[in-house]
Design a protein that fits this description.
By secondary structure, the protein is mainly beta. It contains one helix and 19 strands. It binds calcium ion.
Length: 295
């Protein structure tokens, strides 16, 4: 690997990794399955707080107002500085989220304080219990603003058993007597409406011109679990097609082998493009072909 250090290889591979994991790709059509639209608090359990429909701040109609009067003297006897919390139990027949890609929600904050503390509100997805849960602080949430929160469902410890979602406040992050409330609206599961290649990653950043195959990692969504699709991969130098192959892909992450005839490659800065049946979207990643040291 003359003039091509391991760090450069890693950098080349990183180019292929988009921001797909954090949010839907730009312009992609998404299906929505609404978990909570604020019109009702049916199914929400509460402790040391209230969770009521409100039209004071709502994306549309009403939102759910998670209202916490911070009290360092009340709550559970052993823990007077406690964890006001509210959670929604997901109906048993809706706990398999493997056909979805993201959880999206909007949260607006209001508080008697000048601004929120650093750890203002936490969010948990339990799969199905505390020991198999995912949690993070919703740092996007700001006083007096709507924050859109998008969580990729790849974070779920068991995506087939998402039993509840929970908001909580640590009273230790607040002063005794503070009032804090969050308005939660449009909580929904999002799934890609059409077959989508999220990631296409050649397992090498450069190839020798005498190579006859290329292994790629592909992450695909927008397909049902039992419905494979065809992905067309084309290796090009400029406009010239060096190799082309159709590969069968499934939902999820997979390793695939592109085969092409020996001698079909040419040295240069090439591109690997991929399309999937059912979508116009083209995914392109760079790949460098160099003269073989054995030629
Ligand atoms: Ca609403």
């Amino acid at each position: 690997m003359r003039n091509w250090t391991p760090i450069m290889v890693v950098a080349a591979l990183m180019v292929a990794c988009g921001s797909w994991a954090q949010a839907p790709v730009d312009g992609a059509a998404m299906n929505r399955h609404v978990l909570a639209d604020g019109e009702s608090n049916e199914g929400w359990e509460i402790a040391e707080c209230t969770m009521e429909p409100s039209d004071a701040h709502a994306r549309s109609g009403k939102s759910l107002n998670f209202h916490v009067p911070v009290d360092h003297t009340a709550g559970e006897i052993k823990y007077p500085i406690g964890w006001p919390r509210t959670y929604l139990s997901i109906p048993e027949d809706q706990r398999d989220w493997s056909g979805h890609d993201f959880l999206e929600m909007w949260v607006y904050a209001n508080t008697s304080r000048e601004k929120l503390p650093g750890t203002a509100v936490g969010f948990t997805i339990a799969c199905p219990d505390r020991s198999n849960s995912w949690h993070r602080t919703l740092t996007e949430v700001k006083k007096g603003e709507w924050a859109r929160i998008v969580i990729p469902l790849t974070v779920c410890p068991d995506i087939t058993n998402c039993a509840s979602i929970k908001f909580h406040v640590s009273e230790s992050s607040y002063e005794h007597g503070d009032m804090v409330e969050f308005y939660v609206d449009d909580v929904a599961l999002l799934s890609y409406a059409e077959p989508t290649i999220l990631e296409l990653l050649p397992l090498t950043g450069l190839m020798y011109a005498d190579a006859s195959s290329l292994r790629v990692q592909a992450r695909v969504t927008g397909l049902a679990a039992d419905a494979p699709a065809e992905m067309n991969c084309v290796l090009k130098l400029g406009d010239k097609v060096l190799a082309e192959e159709n590969l069968t892909v499934e939902r999820g992450l997979q390793s695939l082998l592109m085969n092409f005839g020996a001698g079909s490659l040419k040295p240069g800065e090439c591109t690997l493009t991929a399309t999937i049946t059912g979508s116009e979207r083209v995914l392109t990643v760079p790949i460098r072909v160099v003269a073989s040291p054995w030629e």
